[in-house]
Each structure stands twice: as C-alpha cells, then as structure tokens.
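Repro:
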Amino acid sequence: MLTAALQLEVFRFFVVLTRIGAAMMMLPGIGGNLVSLRIRLWLAVSISFLMLPVLGSLFPTAPASLGGMLLTVFGEVVVGLYMGTVVSFLMSVLSLAGSIIGFQVGLTNAFSFDPIAQQQSQLLTGFLSNVGMLAIFATNMHHLMFQAIVDSYTLFPPGQALPWGDFTETLSHLVTETFRVGFQFAAPLVVLGLLFYTGLGLLSRLVPQLQIFFLAQPVQILVGTWMFMMTLPMIVSLFLRFIENGLTPYLIPR
C-alpha cells in the first residue's frame, strides 16, 4: 500500500514538472540563454514541489501501462509548450514594434542582444525588449504567467484529450493580434516616417544638386529618436495591458 502511494506521488510530481518545465523553457527572460540551465532547472523543480499538494487532486490514477504513462507525459509537454508559446507570442509584440520603428528612425544597422528573440537584433528592438522585461518584473506581471500555467491544470486536466483545434485557432488568432498591436505601437513613428520621406522627395526634386539623403540622415535619427522617447511610456503601458488581457482567458476567477 505504501509502495503504491509513493509511486503515485512520484508519478504526479513528474507530471507536474513536465508541464511546468516545458512552459518555463519557453517563457521570455526566465527561459532565456542568459539564465543558467541549472537555475532554470532548480526553479522548475521548486515550483513543482510547491504546486504538487495543490494540484494533486486534479490528477487521475497512474496508468497501468508504460504506453499510458508516455501518452500522459506527452500531453503535459504539449500543454506546457502551448502555454509558453502563448506568452512568447504576447512578448513578441515588442520585437515587431521595434523592427518597424528601427526602419523609420534609421537605426537598422545598429545591433544589440534581444532577450525575447534570443539573438542579435536592431538596437531599438533590443532596447524595447529589455524595457518590456523590466516593466514585467517591476510590476509583478510575471506572477500572472505562473498563475496561468497553474490554472491550466483546471482548463486542461491531465490525462484528458487535448483540444488541438482550439490550440491551433488560438495561436493563429494570436499571431494576427500581435501584428496588429505591434503596428499600432509603431504607428506614430510610421506617420512621422511617411511625412519625413515625402518632404525629402519633394526637396530632392526642387534641389537635384543637393545630397539630400546624406544631409537628412542625422535629422532623421535625431527626430526619430525624440519621437520614440516621447511615445515610449505609452508603448510600455499598452504593452502591459496587452499582456494582462492575453493571459486573462487562462486565469480562473477567484
């Protein structure tokens, strides 16, 4: 009797660790390469230990066959990766906005490390991503990420059939919404860029001898950077609201 109980608890712990670990592997900042693999592993194990007494009642009995266990673990990996992908898509709105703003400001040749994309990207993209990560941790918005992962056990109980159609539809809708919101973040700079380049075109037609693009580059960077800094508080505020609205459907009302 004791052996069966211990085996059940070990099975439940590894099932919890599978979903939480898969989700944390996709979370921006926490799951990035800048965080040590050992720290990420211990954090996932610690959260799994804390959540095991809370989530234990939601788990079915351990499958009798090895195939059933593997199928259960596979389902937990899929749900964990899905939750992590949702958060990654929500965070990618800053990368998209930074790329568009970088083209308008004229800083596309300056590169820095992007903690969300985990690669070298445009300077403003990396700056926006770092500011967004700082705003999330400063406002404790990362608690909503962990809460959404924990509440996913109620939305997607372990051992149940996975809603593949809902997963696909949600992610496709999220990609469209991310592009729309990212373009809205960069809209002031897009309008400024259109007006600026239109003025340059007219000036080059009026004075063909003038090296207009060579002279206008410093003005473009100066005005674009000023406009970007003016809109930065609005972008950060709307980004935090976008993250909260994106995670709300996965939170259980309390």
